[in-house]
Specification:
Blueprint (H helix, E strand, L loop, with lengths): L6 H32 L4 H37 L3 E3 L7 H14 L5 E5 L6 E4 L7 E5 H6 L2 H16 L2 H28 L5 H48 L2 H11 L39 H10 L1
Length: 308
């Protein structure tokens, strides 16, 4: 007899997959640099090249992550045009209370609550951690979902906060930005360098191979890994949200409604934020295929929720 998966089984499985996928980022990056360098220099030299490229790249990532850590959440809220609400505001008091109640059920501090004045249905969470997190809801999702469905959505976002997904998203976005910037610098160095003797020719060939490794990593490997992580975190947040509310059916119902109108116009040009929302905010054109999708197919998410 086949064992029925519980909420805890889903959460554990998705967490293990996420750890494996995150670990693959530096492993694949170093392996690519080594393999491409090995094409033009001996293996021992290729190892030194890989080590020499990996160290400054990781230092650059750490520095940029520090900047992102300090200002990333406020930048994302600003891009979305989100406005903070408080429990003292009569028009939005009930929304604030719903977030407060779900946070209490999740055992987390109440996050700051923001409204995005858009009639579509979407939501996202951001922040450095549970103590300074924010939840943003569109006006459309507040108006068009009933109370239990909205609490399911809020619980999903609280799950992202509790699971530290908002921190992971911010670090991944930053890391990708640094490797793209590094590739651009390498290309400029190659373009400005001469080839007056054999040593310069050899160095130029190595730089070209390293640049190619960066390009393969940035535009082939990174999107696949990042989207796979995003899909796993959405499954985990669905499961944890269902655990918080004890009502997976309400979140499943909310997802059915949200996917009919999830596009948020102000996020059309901010591709990096797509993975942070409960549903793709840029419209169905982004779903080129399951491998490149920021979210799992809604039918699978609903099926998992209904099986819990």
């Amino acid at each position: 007899m086949k064992k029925v998966k519980t909420v805890y089984d889903h959460i554990r499985s998705n967490n293990i997959k996420t750890i494996i996928l995150v670990a693959l980022f530096p492993i694949i990056f170093i392996a690519l640099v080594f393999l491409f360098a090995w094409i033009v220099v001996p293996a021992a030299d290729a190892v030194r090249v890989a080590a020499g490229v990996a160290l400054p790249t990781m230092i650059g990532c750490l520095i940029w992550m520090g900047i992102s850590w300090a200002f990333g959440d406020s930048m994302m809220l600003s891009v979305a045009g989100a406005k903070e609400i408080h429990d003292t505001d009569p028009a939005n008091r009930q929304i604030f209370r719903s977030v407060e109640n779900v946070a209490l059920a999740a055992g987390l501090p109440t996050p700051r609550v923001y409204i995005i004045e858009d009639d579509s249905m979407n939501a996202f969470a951001t922040g450095r951690g549970p103590r300074d997190a924010s939840v943003a809801l569109t006006r459309g999702i507040i108006k068009r979902l009933d109370r239990l469905e909205l609490e399911g959505v809020i619980a999903h976002e609280m799950a992202h906060i509790g699971n530290r997904d908002i921190r992971l998203d911010m670090l991944l976005i930053t890391g990708v930005g640094v490797t793209v910037f590094a590739a651009d610098i390498l290309l400029r160095v190659i373009a400005s360098g001469g080839a007056r003797n054999d040593d310069n020719k050899s160095s130029g060939a190595v730089l070209m191979m390293v640049w190619l490794a960066f390009m393969v990593f940035n535009f082939l490997i990174t999107p696949l890994l990042r989207m796979a992580i995003s899909r796993n975190r959405e499954y985990a947040a669905d499961a944890t949200g269902a655990q918080i509310t004890r009502n997976p059916a309400a979140l499943a119902s909310a997802l059915r409604k949200i996917t009919t109108d999830s596009r948020v116009e102000c996020l059309d040009k901010v591709k990096a934020m797509s993975a942070m929302c409960i549903a793709n905010p840029r419209g169905p054109r982004e779903f080129i295929g399951d491998m490149l999708a920021t979210h799992p197919p809604v039918e699978k998410r609903i099926a998992r929720l209904e099986s819990m």
